[in-house]
UniProtKB/TrEMBL annotation:
It comes from Pseudoduganella albidiflava. Residues 1-27 form the signal peptide. Coiled coil: none annotated. It comes from the Bacteria. Its main location: membrane. PANTHER family: PTHR47234, SECRETIN_TONB SHORT N-TERMINAL DOMAIN-CONTAINING PROTEIN. This is TonB-dependent receptor. Keywords: Cell outer membrane, Membrane, Receptor, Signal, TonB box, Transmembrane, Transmembrane beta strand, Transport. Belongs to the TonB-dependent receptor family. It is found in: Cell outer membrane. It holds the Pfam family TonB_dep_Rec_b-barrel. Residues 30-64 are annotated as: Disordered. A motif (TonB C-terminal box) lies at residues 975-992. The keyword 4Fe-4S does not apply.
Amino acid sequence: MNTPFQRRLIHLAVAGACGILSTHAHAQAGAPATAGAEPGDARQAGQEATPADPATAPVPPSSTVVVSGSRIAARGFTQPTPTTSLTAADFDKAAKPNMFESLVELPALQGSTGRTTNTFSTSSGIQGLSSLSLRGLGTIRTLTLLDGQRVVGANVTGITDVSQFPQLLVKRVDVVTGGASASYGSDAIGGVVNFITDKKFAGFKANVSGGMTKYDDDKSGTLQAAWGKGFVNGRLHVTASGEFTKQNGIDSPGFGEVGANGRTWYNNPALQESTRAMQAAGAPRYRSIVHAQHVQYAKYGLITAGPLRGTAFGPGGTPYPFEYGTDCVGNFCIGGDRSGSVGAGTNLAMNFKRQVAYGRVSWDLDGNNEIYATVNWAQVKSAFSPNPGAAKQGNLSIRCDNAFLPASVAAGCAAGYPDGVMPVGTANAQFPANINVHPTRTQRRFVVGADGRFALLGRDWSYDAYAEHGENTTVIHVRDITLNRRYNFAIDAVRDPATGQVVCRSAEARAAGCQPVNIFGDVPIDLAGWHYIAPRNGPMQHTDSSQDVASININGELAQGWAGPVSMAFGAEYRREKYAVHGDPYGAGVAYESPYGPSHPFDPTLSATGDNWFAGNYHNGQGSFNVKEAYVELNIPFLKSATWGEANLNIADREEKYSTAGHARAWKIGATWKTPVDGLRLRAVSSADVRAPNLSELYAAMTVTNQAVNNAQGSSIQIQQRNVGNPNLKPEKARNNSFGVVLSQPGWARNASLSVDYFDIKVKNVISSLNPQQEVDLCYGGNQEVCAAVSIDGPAGTNYVLAQSFNFASLHTRGVDIEGAWRVNMGDYGMPGSVTLRGLATRTIHAISDPGVPGTTPSEGAGNMTGATPKWKAMLSQSWDGLLGGKAGLTLTERWISSGVFNNEYIECQTNCPLPTAAHPTIYDNHMPGAVYIDLGGTWNFSKGVTAYFKVDNLADRDPVLVPQTNLSLALNPAIYDAVGRTYRAGVRMTF
C-alpha cells in the first residue's frame, strides 16, 4: 500500500471490519438485518411472511432456504457459492436516486455501465444503460435477474437495464460472486445479481428526494410510491408501484481548456508520441503531458502544412499566426493556443429520466399454492453531447480559389502550393450546436406463473413455474451532426462567374441543394448551409427486442440420509430471443430504408450504401435464436459428527441446446464443511460455465464509428471503425474455482463475522475483436490476415478498419474477496444506540486478456487504470444507529481504489529505452494514482412512519484522476474514478 491511510483500510478489512455476512449469526448477536447475509441463512430464504424484526426472530427448524447461488431449498443447507446480500435498509442508507448507483460501488462489481460512462460515444448503442458487471468480465457475462427470472434485454447484446426494474419494492439484492450457469443458465460466468421483490407488501410507502452537486449542476429529483393490499380474506393480493427519477446531468462547457461549471481540474492531458528517430535514440514512445495543444486543427481553422503552415483564422476570417506552444513533438505541443480543444466538451454525466410502473396480482388457490401475474412498464431516456463541433484533423483539402479564403491567404496558397490545394484542420467551432444523442428505451414485460407446495411419496416438494413475454424498444436519435459528403461539398465554395454569388463548386451537389458553408474564422454559419450539412432528420436507430420464456423449477427432499436430508432441484426452460433494427437511409443505405416514418428523398451525391454521417451510422439487421435447457441439482449431506462437524456436497448439471451455437453444458461441484472449530466453516466450488453468443454478436447490423489511428509514421489518420456480426460463433466456456473460509460469530467474538474467498476464473473461446489501432499495428507488422480488414491508405473519408468478432480470445482473472462485519451495542459503554462496522474488499491478482491472434500477446488488466479492474477496490462503512433517543442515525463510508498504471504492457523508462513494439510500447511515467472517497449520511425519524435523510457523496470533493489519451479527449475513466464531484441529497421516506 502506498499510504498509511490505505494500509489502515486494508488492515481493517482483514481484521473483520469489512463485509456483509450471516444474518442468522447476527440474529444470535442481536445485529440488524441490514448487516447483510451469508448464503444459507433464513433471511435469504425469500419467504413472504417474515417476522416484523428479522434481526431477532429465531429460525424455525422447518424453514427452507432459497438462495440465488443455488436452486436448492432445504433445511440446514449452506450452499458453497459465495453470495453477498444487500437489503432495502442498506439501499436506504446509500440514499442514491437509483439503486444501480449503490450496487456499482460494491468491490466485486467492476466495469458496469451507467450515465457517466460512454458519454463520449455516438454510435455504440449502450449509452445510458445501467448494466452490471462482475469481476470486470463485462456486462454480457453477468446475469441479472428479477425474482429469479430473466428480463428482456435493453440492448441487442441481451444485457438488462437495472433502471427499468421496480426498485422501491425490492427488499433484497443477492450478488452471487461465482459461476452460476448450472443453476441459472447462460451468461452467469462472472456471477448473478438477483433482485428480489416484496411480493406480499401491504400498506403504503413513498420516497421523495432531491439533490445537486457542489457546482450547482446535475440537479435531481426522485418520486417513488408503492401500495399493496389483501382482499377476500387475504387470498387475493394486489401490489402496485410507480417511480420517477430525473437527473439533469452535467452539460458540455464547450471548447478550450475549461471545466464544466467551475470545475478546475481539466488541463488538456494527452499522450505525446515521439518520432521514430527519437525512439531509435532511446526516448520513450509516449510521454504524458498536460496543457496539450493539438497541431492538426484550431478552433476556427488552421493550415497544417506547406508555406502557410501555422496560419489560423480568427474573427471575421482574419488570418493570424497560430501559437503552437513549446516541446512540439508529433501531434502535440505543450501550451500555446488551446482554445479549440474539444476534450472538455464531453458531458460528465448524462441527462437522465426513468419512469417505471409495476403491478402484481396473486390468488391463493389454497394455503400452499398461488397463481400470479405481473406487468412492468418502464421507460428510460438519456441525453448528452459526446463532443463539441466535429474536429477535422488536418485532413481537409482546401483549394486556393475557395471563395471564403481571405485574399492574402488565397494569394499565398496560389504561390506556394503547386497543386492548388492546401491542408486545413478545424474544430468546427462555428457550428451552432454540439452533437447531441438521445437514447430512449421502453420496456413492456408480462409474467404469469404459479408457485407453491405439493406432497409426493410422503414428502413435501415445492415448485415455481412461469411464462414471460418481454419487449424492449430502443430508439436513438442523434441531432446536430453533419453528413460527411455534404460537408465536403459545402466547404468547397467558389464564386459563380455569372452572378458573383458564392456557390458550391460541384454542379451535381448544387442540383441536389448544396448550400456553401464558410469554415474560416469566427463567422456564423448561414442557417441554409447548416441545414444542408446537418439535416434535422439526423441519425436514427430503431430496435425492437423481444424475449419469450417458459420455465419450471421443482425442488424437495429425496430421502433422509444419515447426515441429513438429501435434496434435489430440477427444472427445464425454453427461451426465445429475437431482434430487428432499422437505421435511417443516410446511415443504413437507401436500399434498406427504414419502414418507420415517411421516406425521405435520397441525395444522389451521397453513398447509397450508407455511412454518410460524421458518426451514428446505424445499419439494419435482424436475428433470433432459441434455447432448450434442463438441469438437476443435488445437495448431499455426508458428515454430521460432534467430533468432525458437518459437511455437505452440492452438485449440478445443465444441458443446453441452442438453435445457433449448438450444444452447451454447465456443471458445478461444491462442498461446505462446518468444522468443529467454533464459528469456522470452509467452502469450495468448481464449476463449468457458459455464455452463448448474443444476438448482437451473431447478427449485428454494421455500425460505423469514427476513430483516429496512427500509421507506421506516427501520423494520426481518421478512419471508420466498421463493426459487424458473425453467425458462426460458438459459446464461450469458463472454469470457475473458488475456496473460502468463513468465521461466523464465534464464542470469542459474538458480534463479528469474516469471510475470505479466493476465486479463479478462466474463460476460453471468448468472443472478442481487436481494436482499430491493434489491427493497424498488426497489419504494419506483416499479419496479412488482419491486413484484409484494414484500409487506411486511401483518400480522406474512405479509410476504415473492419471489426468482426471471433472465438479466438481467452480471459483469466483471479483474486480474493474479503467480507466482514462487527457490531457493538453502545449501551454496554453507557452510550446510546449501536455501532456497526461493515465493508467489502476485492483484491484482483490477475485479469489477463489474450487476443489469441498470431502476433499478439496477453495483456494484464489488474491495476490498469484505463480499464475496469484496479488491484484493490474496497468499501468500508461505520453506522451509528439509535442516537438521540432512537430518532437519529449516522453513516460514514469510505470507498478506496488502489493506485495502478496507465497500462501494464507499457515499459517505463526515461532514457536508453528499448525500441517499442506494438505489444509493449515505452512510456516515460506509467504510474496512475488511486483515490479515496468519503461519504456521509444521516437519518431523523419524525414519527414511526416518517423518516428524513441526507447524504453527501465525495465529501472532500476529490477531483478525478485524468487518464491521458493519444488524442485530446475528456481523458476520464468513470468506471473507476468519480467524475461528478461532491453531491448533496436529501429526502423523506414514508411508510404506513
